[in-house]
Amino acid sequence: MRLTILGGGGFRVPLVHRALLDDPARAVTEVTLYDTDADRLRVIAAVLERQAAGRERPVRVRLATDLDDALRGADFVFSAIRVGGTAGRVADERIPLSEGVLGQETVGAGGVLYGLRTIPVALHIAERAAALAPDAWVINFTNPAGMVTEVMAEVLGERVIGICDSPVGLVRRAARAAGADPDAVSYDYVGLNHLGWLRSLSYEGRDLLPGLLADPEALGSFEEGRLFGAEWLHALGALPNEYLHYYYFRRETLASVRAADETRGVFLDRQQGGFFEAAGRRPEDAYALWERTRLEREETYMAESREASGGWQRDTCDLEGGGYDRVALALMHAIAGDRRARLILNVRNGTTVPALAPEAIIETVCEVGADGARPLPCAPLRNDQLGLMLQLKAVERATVEAAVFKERDAALRALALHPLVDSPAVAARILERAAD
Known about the structure:
By secondary structure, this protein is α/β, with parallel strands linked by helices. 51% of the residues lie in helices and 15% in strands. Helix 1 runs parallel beside helix 2 (38-52) and helix 19 crosses helix 20 (424-435). The relative contact order is 0.13.
């Protein structure tokens, strides 16, 4: 199979390449890396060359700076672009923080700003993919993944599927904490991207989640348990996606972010800029530089939320990086080989959540095969879960409308209706500053 990665000069591309090298089936024989930045492409190519050294039948890597050339002939397309680069992320975080609200890149005002910038580019990619690789499956990594997948689906229909590593990480950590094999459990997970809940975790016909939620020691053994605290998780009756910490503990997280020496975006802009500069000068050291930079990136992931919940270090098993790369590989195998698999994916709702439109993108457990991904029925949502989903879906739809039709009213609505933005006046000022 031929795979194209859009955003091929991205820092996390070597994780995907590593998964392809470790794939016993060697299903992907050629990877095309596309990026608008030729210098970054060359650096990542140097990392991949060293990573593949000594491997039998390494995956052929081709570089491209022309989108049409990259798409033509692809069987699968990974979309992992960052419109505006890390400098754009810095602005997405700083502008809302200057108004006293969270600016994280996928939630809150920062996520809306990122979506406004990214959606037109994602729509263009979908149109070119439909024209040049109509039989290809597009797997979307690009954030904000829910709204980006939704706008791409308006062109590609069910041939675009969004993925995220947060839900599968949650399931695996919860299963280990409950004493079960993560590969042997079944589960009920539903929500939107970065806004979902694990609501059952079954092994050999028994739901392990109630017992886990009643066990403070077990909850304290993994990230989400420490992040949200045993008392709140027991009261909530579910395990939330880690990103819900921004909503449930917004005051504490905002205080932690504002007290930090720098935002996450500033850290990554400085860190990745330093990596690409050094690796560009010393391509022979690119792999070692990348591995060292990657580990630091994983160690500091969601540091502000961990600080807000008492301060603690990530477990060694959570520092491998990625996770989404393995989900993507499993998804490709399931589609290309018609191997039935159950994965948590971002797909069209259909009738899964009756309160949402059939074409709305949700994140839930799907059965995957040659015909794509189909969401499985789930238990009814509680009012608090459904209410938050409906409000955030309204924000997503307004963001799409604003980005596609250049509607300022829709952009204002997207920002002002977000639960992490506390005033339409604040929303208007954020919008004005972002336009400068």
